Amino acid sequence: MLVRHQAPEHETLREAGIRPTTPRITILRAIEQGGHRHLTPESFHQELADQGHEFSLATVYNTLNHFAEADLLRRVGCGDRHYFCTNTREHHHFYDARTGRIEDIPDPQPVIAGLPEPPPGMMIEAVEVVIRLRRLPHG
């Protein structure tokens, strides 16, 4: 009897409710091998292409969004740009709009107090803080 062992990425996707296709497994593997970082679909698409993977930008973008919806990544909006953060625990970010650099705010995380009551029938799911930075003028 032949016993097939499935890649851990295959199981991760199944547990997240995502059908494990070859592109999704490859993309998840590349994310996991890259360590903690903040991805844009465009930069990650280029990284995959540099590794010899020929996925369309739409495939990469859609896959990153599926992963974020399944809590395998966190989507972080900074102005008109979106990043995908590999750190899925609750945390906040610093963002330099000039350079486009985003980084995690180190612990302890800011405490958010005095939140308004949500509308009837709704609950607060998450609060995300992005602190925009600007370089000090020289002088």
TrEMBL record:
Pfam families, alphabetized: FUR
Span of the signal peptide: none
GO biological process, one term: negative regulation of DNA-templated transcription
Recorded name of the encoding gene: fur
Subcellular location: Cytoplasm
Gene Ontology molecular-function annotations: DNA-binding transcription factor activity; transcription cis-regulatory region binding; zinc ion binding
A cellular-component GO term for this protein: cytoplasm
Family: Belongs to the Fur family.
Species of the source: Magnetospirillum gryphiswaldense (strain DSM 6361 / JCM 21280 / NBRC 15271 / MSR-1)
Record's subunit section: Homodimer.
Keywords per UniProt: Cytoplasm, DNA-binding, Iron, Metal-binding, Repressor, Transcription, Transcription regulation, Zinc
Name of the protein in question: Ferric uptake regulation protein
InterPro entries: FUR, WH-like_DNA-bd_sf, WH_DNA-bd_sf
CDD domains linked to this entry: Fur_like (cd07153)
Main localization category: cytoplasm
Source organism superkingdom: Bacteria
Keyword Transferase: no
